[in-house]
Amino acid sequence: MTGDQAMDLWVREVHRGVVALSFKVEKTLFSGKSPYQQVDVIQTAGHGRMLLNDGIVMISERDEFVYHEMIAHVPLFVHPDPKRVLVIGGGDGGTVREVVRHPGVECVVMVEIDEMVVHACREHFPQVSSALDHPKLSLHIEDGVRFVAETKERFDVVIVDSTDPIGPAQPLFDKAFYENTAGLLLDGGILITQAESPFYDPDLQRPMLANQRPYFPRLHLYLLTNLTYPGGLWSFGFASKGPDPLRDFDPRRVEASGLRFRYYNADIHRAAFALPTFVTETLCDTIDAAGV
Amino acid sequence: MTGDQAMDLWVREVHRGVVALSFKVEKTLFSGKSPYQQVDVIQTAGHGRMLLNDGIVMISERDEFVYHEMIAHVPLFVHPDPKRVLVIGGGDGGTVREVVRHPGVECVVMVEIDEMVVHACREHFPQVSSALDHPKLSLHIEDGVRFVAETKERFDVVIVDSTDPIGPAQPLFDKAFYENTAGLLLDGGILITQAESPFYDPDLQRPMLANQRPYFPRLHLYLLTNLTYPGGLWSFGFASKGPDPLRDFDPRRVEASGLRFRYYNADIHRAAFALPTFVTETLCDTIDAAGV
Prior knowledge:
The structure is a homodimer.
Chain A: E1 10-15, E2 19-33, E3 38-44, E4 49-53, E5 56-60, H1 64-78, E6 84-89, H2 94-99, E7 107-112, H3 115-124, E8 137-141, H4 144-150, E9 155-161, H5 175-183, E10 185-194, H6 202-212, E11 218-225, E12 233-240, H7 251-257, H8 266-271, H9 277-283
Parallel strand pairs in A: 6-7, 6-9, 7-8, 9-10
Antiparallel strand pairs in A: 1-2, 2-3, 3-4, 4-5, 10-12, 11-12
């Protein structure tokens, strides 16, 4: 991946050996190898700057708003009064950027294992990493698995903004991690987890959701579609110690917040919990039905 | 595109010069040049058989159910009593296959310009083209633009299952076509149109919807996500001479039909009309808001 504008250069991510998504590259802005993964930042022709970990697209400037709005605002508008939020992963800062837009949030703790991701995003994605110096944020460069096992802090919402269950993020999909996470959630707390592609990855979704199931009375899946993940359709897990993602959602709160979003809105919030029949059938023994 | 299983062969569709979607190929099953376009059928490694017109993916066996269920069942469950249905394009037969599942439909007319597509799909996609010999179907190999200009027949629902507004389908996006189509819709009739990618193609969506606008008191957009179109998120136009896609939709009709779907269901029907904020903002001067 070298940047020579005279060449017809593309970055290509192959998924499951059968499908590939490629983006036209203008130049490479950063390339480094951390103790955890290969980290690359490229300037693309049509999607702004793009972050790749181990060759897998994490974010692009063009569509990162979809993922970050959906991972943050769905739980923050369901929980009745989220004050303390923990973000595991999310080194680019986009999730924190959305979380701190809620004035009621008093404290955000972010635990990212890979300092190189944070440095690269501070440098090359100023509009994504813009909240990494926010006064409400406490940023730890540390293993999230160890953090949730050891911390005495408690939270209203935990967001696991992780890479896939291969490589450094693998333990974030284990039962022990979810048990510890459930333990540090306050009453009525909500856990959001990056939950892969319903089309391509049901074999990853089933165990991760089954690993969460014992610790949460409610467990739902919700959907979004972005440009940079294979299959377009993507999912988050919504595990809750209390609130129902739809019955406890009041669209007037979105309106009253005065916040402006590019993807999220009250209709999209509800619609995201409507699952295609094949998704429901695949996961029906693990997740709860949402009464859309 | 030749089939040699010893090679690492992929079929690659570039969109807008900045993004490409590639599928691993096992072999080519059919390749021909009709008066209208290049037609190819390939066996892929992960998506079953795939039809490409002029190198652009039309359908794959793995995910065609998404597109065909959403183009057919949304209007057929909104219209109070659809008896006569016209399908323009849709040479693979998938749309007709879904339409004839509604026992109340008495007559389906399908007008496909390219006989080679029909032949190739009869041969290589038996489960998609399975209704092309259905007794309720009248299949015309003919220009859809001329058909709607000349026919004296009238319809409850017209479905434009077309390729993109480049190549042979271009006139299907013109004002004259929509005016003629509105003219052959019975009272309370509904027109559904393939309406491109909300992420990549707002410059195609805006004129096509503006061209429909003068002839329909209601005009909405609804969404689906499949595996084989660039950007994942895709859209259909819902133009109506009467019925509202949500207020006139009774989910009990879906249940009572006894029909089984793989993507469509009553929740998905409603959710499909929830638009991301950036879509609404882009098209707000053309389409109506759906009261999701």
